[in-house]
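User: Here's a structure from my thesis project, written as structure tokens. My advisor, Dr. K., wants to see whether a designed sequence matches the one we expressed. Can you design one independently, without my sequence as a hint?
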């Protein structure tokens, strides 16, 4: 038996998809909606998977602090390498390199969802006994991608949820 608790969060990010056949290879942005699904085998003594406010503080706030209003670029993207070290002033106290976040993947919705489940979830939920099982990343209200953590077998061949 398992339970799931869900919360979504909205952020705005720039990105580009390296090698895209069409317009998505250009620098552009989205109002992303990210849906987090947390899972537990047991409920706590109040009957919760995890308090909704903890999903907010641990996962939604991670998005807010790390990615919101930033430009997500693949670390191997040649455009990123031009921008990241660029200290050319823009006249308002910022530089062209400000707000660039290098990520270790081409920033499609699929790769963003996978990174959140495999890297950010375990880091942010460490010690809680809760898993980030599933993440859906909406680029627009029409289009989204989903990554789901599959149950794995332990050394005894038992399914570990
Ligand atoms: N499977 C995926 N396909 C695409 C992704 C992605 O992350 N995963 N990303 C993009 C682009 O980022 C693009 O901005 C979105 O593309 P698209 O839906 O074609 O464009 P619009 O939102 O402008 O939709 P219109 O209906 O054409 O206005 C592309 N594909």
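Assistant: Designed independently from the structure alone:
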């Amino acid at each position: 038996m398992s339970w799931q608790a869900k919360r979504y969060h909205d952020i705005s990010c720039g990105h580009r998809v390296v090698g895209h056949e069409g317009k998505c290879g250009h620098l552009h942005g989205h109002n992303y909606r990210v849906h987090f699904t947390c899972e537990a085998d047991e409920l706590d003594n109040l009957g919760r998977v995890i308090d909704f406010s903890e999903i907010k503080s641990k996962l939604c706030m991670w998005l807010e602090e790390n990615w919101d209003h930033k430009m997500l670029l693949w670390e191997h993207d040649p455009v990123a390498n031009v921008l990241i070290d660029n200290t050319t002033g823009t006249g308002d106290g910022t530089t062209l390199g400000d707000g660039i976040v290098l990520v270790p993947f081409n920033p499609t919705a699929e790769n963003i969802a996978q990174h959140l489940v495999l890297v950010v979830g375990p880091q942010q939920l460490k010690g809680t006994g809760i898993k980030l099982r599933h993440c859906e990343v909406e680029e627009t209200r029409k289009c989204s991608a989903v990554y789901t953590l599959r149950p794995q077998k332990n050394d005894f061949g038992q399914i570990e949820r």
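When you compare it with your expressed construct, this may help: The chain has one domain: 3-20+29-70+107-160.
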